[in-house]
From TrEMBL:
<feature type="compositionally biased region" description="Acidic residues">
    <location>
        <begin position="294"/>
        <end position="314"/>
    </location>
</feature>
<dbReference type="Pfam" id="PF00439">
    <property type="entry name" value="Bromodomain"/>
</dbReference>
<dbReference type="InterPro" id="IPR013083">
    <property type="entry name" value="Znf_RING/FYVE/PHD"/>
</dbReference>
<dbReference type="InterPro" id="IPR019787">
    <property type="entry name" value="Znf_PHD-finger"/>
</dbReference>
<feature type="region of interest" description="Disordered">
    <location>
        <begin position="284"/>
        <end position="343"/>
    </location>
</feature>
<keyword id="KW-0103">Bromodomain</keyword>
<dbReference type="Pfam" id="PF01342">
    <property type="entry name" value="SAND"/>
</dbReference>
<dbReference type="InterPro" id="IPR043563">
    <property type="entry name" value="Sp110/Sp140/Sp140L-like"/>
</dbReference>
<dbReference type="GO" id="GO:0003677">
    <property type="term" value="F:DNA binding"/>
</dbReference>
<dbReference type="InterPro" id="IPR008087">
    <property type="entry name" value="AIRE"/>
</dbReference>
<dbReference type="InterPro" id="IPR001487">
    <property type="entry name" value="Bromodomain"/>
</dbReference>
<dbReference type="InterPro" id="IPR000770">
    <property type="entry name" value="SAND_dom"/>
</dbReference>
<dbReference type="Pfam" id="PF03172">
    <property type="entry name" value="HSR"/>
</dbReference>
<protein>
    <submittedName>
        <fullName>SP110 nuclear antigen, tandem duplicate 3</fullName>
    </submittedName>
</protein>
<feature type="domain" description="PHD-type">
    <location>
        <begin position="442"/>
        <end position="500"/>
    </location>
</feature>
<dbReference type="GO" id="GO:0008270">
    <property type="term" value="F:zinc ion binding"/>
</dbReference>
<feature type="domain" description="SAND">
    <location>
        <begin position="334"/>
        <end position="418"/>
    </location>
</feature>
Length: 627
């Protein structure tokens, strides 16, 4: 919503007239002046003269004169002037412009541009004092003066306004009232609360009542909404708007059509319990049942008068439900207490309906920001995860996503998952295009489970698959990723995805295991690489990845022929195997050695058996081996 679309050129010109002095006092106005020059709003010679000035006082004087010249000589381009200086890059450099833009948004500028009546009257009296008498010549002069004045006013009006007013209409077009309701169609997104100049205040409405909400006061539980220079709590503002019967300010008070409860829920606003509020309660989900009501429905609700019977019934229901609310609060407190015992965890297994995934704490930012939930096929934000599971766009992620049978909101209330502030500059909250691409893939290599480190020569940068969320080090992947591939802009697909999408890898006819192991491996390299990568990915603790002799001093005395997955990968990369059977034998040897050495370690034995069963099952599926 751009306020310049709703204001007349005369109003914008008057606004410049009263703000010239304030603008001329801005520190280091060179960028501002350059912007005016770039839009041909000031002459080149005046611009060069100002750029050469070193004295601050002279600069302020010259700056004011330039604005004064612009007001007189470029009045027909006043809308272009304000559009050029209200660019985001310019406003970030000059806080004065942010305040001026905000005054246009909330309508407070109207009181600034209404000049006192006496100014015009005194000038008129002076002109009258200079006239010798009220003779015919004086009357002609006054008439001509009036014509010149009307002619000057006509210059201010844009061509578009003249066409709309029509040649027969002498009445000046009435100024449009700024509309704060959302001009967007249903389904479109626009986060007005993220605009830079709304850092401290938000324009809010309740029915037809408008006000300004101050963020810091809302977070402290103070009177936070100002209407006509008077402060109100959210409940009082709701009552002022004639919606006392709703008793749910989180739903009835809105910013650009979005209920405050939803902004609080998503982390855009912070709020605490208001003292003396009958409806305020400590809840994990303060707005879980919120539904965005259309503006037409809102207007109808405002015009309806609730009778006394309904009010009495609501009061009775509120008293009867007090016990349930207390029990609910106690249960939620218990859940938060239990959740705090898991504050050191980094990964949480979550579900939403039939959909499962893992939530990674270091990736979490809020419901909409930070792709923190990993499924088998992709990374998602909590909102995307809940939407995919339920098929509904308005699902509540804090309530619908579950962790160990409890709502995910338990973790946010217990501060285990911290919702980032609205203006957080981190790469999760303010990502560039590269960061967005990186969020689609894992942060660690799915084989060695470590990150890529560019600054260390022995470590490689992670290579990301363009078809799945997995990431790999160049030498962890099979086959190794060549440097030429990194420099290629075309999509790169990992072996796991390549095998699953390649129809040539599926055998239509059933085969026996004896027939498969006798085949030359050169014709089945992709299948073997796929099988080994599946094993390495499943070895979460890297139990079988490295040579056991490196960390077990007595291993060689117990195991005659050591073997580990890293060694199998090296031999496969160097093409040292002749047949599929040689490859399978080495993999089986890893688990045979595990069973021999770890007879008294049930945990390691269970891990080895699980991976062995995985390999046997995948091996039969890949080669279509009959039982």
């Amino acid at each position: 919503m751009d306020p310049l679309d709703f204001l007349e050129p005369e109003e914008l010109l008057s606004f410049l007239h009263v703000q010239k002095t304030e603008l001329s006092c801005m520190e280091n106005p060179h960028t501002f002046i350059t912007q005016l020059r770039d839009h041909d709003l000031i002459p080149e010679d005046r611009y060069k003269k100002m750029k050469r000035m070193r004295s601050k006082d002279k600069m302020k004087k010259a700056f004011y004169e330039a604005l004064d010249w612009l007001e007189r000589e470029r009045s027909q381009h006043i809308r272009l002037f304000w559009r050029s200086v209200f660019k985001d890059a310019i406003m970030k450099q000059y806080p004065t412009l942010q305040l001026l833009h905000y005054s246009l948004m909330n309508g407070s500028f109207e009181s600034d541009i209404q000049l006192p009546e006496k100014v015009e009257k005194e000038d008129t009296d002076k002109r009258k004092g200079k006239e010798s008498s009220e003779d015919e010549e004086g009357e002609v002069k006054k008439a001509n003066s009036g014509k010149r004045k009307r002619k000057q006013n006509r210059k201010i009006v844009s061509d578009e306004e003249e066409e709309q007013a029509g040649p027969s209409s002498p009445v000046k077009k009435k100024s449009k009232k700024i509309c704060f309701s959302s001009p967007l169609k249903k389904g479109e997104k626009s986060e007005i609360w993220t605009w830079a100049f709304f850092k401290s205040q938000l324009l809010v409405t309740c029915g037809r009542q408008e006000g300004t909400l101050y963020r810091d006061k809302l977070a402290k539980g103070e009177k936070c909404i100002m209407v006509n220079k008077e402060w109100f709590t959210p409940a009082e503002f709701e009552e002022l708007a004639g919606k006392r019967s709703s008793r749910n300010w989180r739903k009835s008070i809105r910013c650009k059509g979005t209920p405050l409860g939803k902004l609080i829920q998503e982390g855009h606003l912070k709020s605490v319990r208001y003292r003396g509020s009958k409806t305020a309660k400590k809840s994990l989900f303060p707005s879980e049942d919120l539904n965005t009501v259309s503006e037409d429905e809102d207007d109808e609700d405002e015009n309806e008068e609730s009778d006394q019977d309904n009010e009495d019934q609501d009061s009775s229901s509120s008293r009867e439900g007090g016990t349930d609310e207390e029990e609910e609060t106690e249960e939620q407190t218990e859940q938060q207490s239990e959740a705090r015992h898991d504050s050191g965890r980094k990964v949480f297994n979550v579900t939403c309906g039939a959909l499962t995934g893992t939530l990674h704490k270091h990736r979490f930012a809020s419901g909409y920001r930070g792709k923190s939930i990993r499924t088998e096929t992709s990374w998602m934000t909590p909102v995307e995860f809940a939407k995919l599971a339920s098929g509904q766009a308005d699902s509540c992620w804090r309530k619908d996503i579950r962790w160990e049978g409890k709502p995910l909101g338990v973790l946010t209330e217990a501060k285990i998952l911290a919702i980032h502030s609205l203006r957080c500059p981190c790469t999760r909250c303010s990502p560039d295009s590269k960061d967005l691409e990186n969020q689609k893939n894992d942060d660690v290599c799915c084989i060695c489970k470590s990150e890529g480190q560019e600054e260390e020569e022995e470590e490689e940068e992670l290579v990301m698959c363009d078809r799945c969320p997995r990431s790999f080090h160049q030498k962890c992947h099979l086959p190794h990723v060549e440097e030429a591939v990194l420099g290629d802009s075309s999509p790169w697909v990992c072996t796991l995805c390549e095998y699953r999408t390649g129809p040539e890898c599926y055998y239509q006819d059933e085969m026996t295991q004896e027939a498969v192991v006798s085949r030359q491996i050169t014709h089945h390299m992709l299948e073997c690489q796929y099988l080994l990568l599946r094993l390495c990915c499943a070895d979460e603790e890297q139990t079988f990845a490295k040579d056991p002799n490196l960390y077990l001093s007595d291993y060689s005395s117990v195991i005659e022929t050591p073997m580990w997955l890293g060694s199998v990968a090296d031999k496969l990369q160097k093409q040292l195997y002749q047949t599929v059977g040689e490859f399978v034998s080495d993999v089986q040897l890893v688990f045979t050695n595990c069973a021999s050495y770890n007879r008294e370690d049930a945990e390691i034995l269970a891990t080895g058996n699980r991976l062995k069963e995985l390999f046997d099952r995948e091996f039969k599926n890949v080669f279509n081996i009959s039982e």
